[in-house]
Write the structure tokens for this entry.
Amino acid sequence: MIRRFILPLLAALMALMPGAHAQPVDGGRAMVELIAERDRVEPGETLYAAIKMELDDGWHVYWRNAGDAGLPPEVRVLDGSDVTEAALGPFVWPIPHLLPVVDGEIMDYGYDDQLVLPFPLTIPADAMGSVQLNFLADYLICEEICIPETAEVSLTLPVGPSEPHIDHGTLIGKWIAKAPRDFEGEARIDASNSPWELSLKTEGGFDTGSDIRFYPFGHEISHPADQPLSFGRDGATLSLTPADDSLDGPLEGIIVVETADGARTGYTLTAGQGAVFEHTSGIAARAAATGADGKSLIALAIAAAIGGLILNLMPCVLPVLSIKAMGMVHAVASGHESEVRSHGLWYTGGVLLSFAALAAAIIAIRQATGTANLGFQLQNGPTVAVLTLIMFVIGLWLLGMFELGSSIQNTGSSLASRSGSMGAFFTGVLAAVVGAPCIGPFLGAALGAVLDRPALSVLIVFLAMGFGLALPYLVLSFVPGLSRLLPKPGRWMETLKQFFAFPMFLTAALLLWTLGAVSGPAAVAWTVAGGTLIAFGIWLARRGRGALTKVLAALAMIAGLVYPALTANSSTAAGEGNSQYAEKYETEAWSPERVIDLTDEGRPVFVDFTATWCATCQLNKVTTLKSNAVQEAFAAHDVAFLVADFTRKDPVIAEELKRRQRAGVPMYLWYPAGATEPQVLPEVLSQKLVIGLVTAE
Amino acid sequence: MFMSRRNFSLAAGMAAAVALTAGALIASTAQAAPDAGEPVLAPDFTGTTATGETISLSDFAGKTVILEWTNDGCPFVQKHYAVPPANMQGLQTDASESDVVWLSVISSAPGKQGHRTGAEVLDMNEGRGATPAHVILDESGDIGRLYKAKTTPHMFLITADGMIAYQGAIDDTPSARVSDIETATNYVSAAMQSVAAGEPVEMASSKPYGCSVKY
């Protein structure tokens, strides 16, 4: 009963409330609504409005280029509006999805579920009271069939001191942040042969685990055709099937980069005609390489098994094996042949189980850290620095500078010396445990190749390695006479072990070279210094007796490992896999005092008054402030970049906005070096504008 | 070292000859793929009409032929059949008056939008005043795929000597609004006029708009 009265009452109250209000309109297959980032607007201001569409299940609407069929949505101004068509800016098109209509024949580009289509809207300079917006959303909506629908949407925006609409501003901001940004690398299209090659060059290259697709603005290429992808050190190349015989002028569109975890980022680009850039192709992408995968997996497994076989020669493994082999000869002589065989199988089981556990651990770590592939790891400065140091330390160990894990070995030995099946099983585990540290020198390459593969491949390669390790013992247990052929343990083992130190040092040198490319010469110098420090720590630990010496040694080793990793991180341009954007975006919280401190120092200061619900702020952040070019200009001119976050009402920020006669964010303040009073920048920034200001210093 | 005028014209002539030969080669090799660009030979096909006849494109050699991909459930097709202004019907009348053969093609698969029996098609055309020479029931989609028909409508104009002189949209205003027809430039009627006058078709190819063909 009560509800029946309250709902209309509430609706009536809402209508009376001073604030923007609108109702979603049912267009038929979609609920359509006109929303704006402001609740109250000032005359003459430009803000973001948006058409928000909630589509029925299975229905979709189209991108700016609909593909082979379909039409993009349009917005027209209806009679009774206080604005004209000229007040509406172009749509900010979100990244579209592929809509395959007929497999391999008809491909469309568009959206399903929800679409928020933002556009700039300029309030008339003479607006008074309120601004009435009556728009017609005209869109083609398709499932299996297509229906042209229209929805008359309206919105009344009261005029007064500008006031954000938190929910709608946040929603519009989120969609703008997801829109394609300018591609900061270079793009070229080689249309001299079919298929055309679209070459994308970007510092640090792309994460080779990602998928890239080009969505053209026009119809120069076949929409349904596959776009085979290959990677290089400095970028990627897509093969595009042309729709026309020739290409006039540049090719425009967006690329959508989809990482292994499904995150999609779009970049707008104009590819001029020209040859494919160097180092942007050659490495086949995962998708294209699926055919070769099976074959290369077999090759890897064989390599791994051979590596495991070689592990038997390691000084840590061979003695264990020899003792067991002796025992076998005796056992066979006293007529326990079948027991020997079962021991051989138990031993193999122990080895395989240990290697399976190792593989599981690696898969788990990979899962937990999200480092889906080694290509990524080798683009990551700190990872390369730490790997270099580990290779170096293993080299030192092989040379005999120190002993490793003798306690583990002892525990294993006591278990292994138990007789019977359990003894054989733990001998297998022991062989794996002491053999594991030796894996690096022989199987570094195979290991690296397998790390970015599916979990099953990792397991297969590790098991193959374990099988290689177990094979000699297994063969001996079935053919005990062969033990005569087993090399006798002796000094030569130590010599061999020491020899293997040199491949390790070579690997370290190779990694250093990679580090130089990724993080620069300073990181290389610090890594070499770190290696020296670790060697010093090891030496100290072995010489010294007192607790202080031990602590010093530990400190030296930790510092030697951690500091290079830190320097490799700070100087790297390729920190986060795909390095097109300065992800670091170093910021400092704004306060009036901080500004005075910095300007007193004579530093130029840039202040970004922003909020998550401010769509314009998000747009400026994506297109300008976060871009490499602007970040580099800031760094080069020692600009202090301060952020005043107005997401939550903050009296100090509100005071500052008021002082600059601004009703809200965004507001950008620029204090040139030595200045105490700022310039207030326009609400819509461009890279050119900001870089111009900074470099004018 | 400047090229004399005579040498220049010789070089230009040779270049033109090479270009022509290349063009002819492309045209002959691209026969099965009537894409945009250079003039392309229209691939021959055979199909069954709404009245049960079996016809081939080659039956109409020596005449201008228009192919219209259609689907009566598609709003873009409905736009051009709407009365008034009866845009498509008008074009069909113009065609028959100037001895141009109009072939409507329905490539909708059975069960898909626009799939019709011959009797249904004849009824429907009588109802809306459509007068194509034939309606081809291409329910396998073979003819549609041969011509890479993407949308309904998707129009082709084939000259008397069997070349595709126009392929693409019916006009320059991609929309489903009937009111847009009045202000649109109709590519098909422009192409028909050029071909009738023995002139090259100015707009030989465009991006078709409409619903996807329901293969």
In short: Chain B is about 30% helix and 20% strand. The helical segments of chain B are 5-29, 75-81, 87-97, 118-128, 142-146, 187-196. The longest strand of chain B covers residues 101-106.
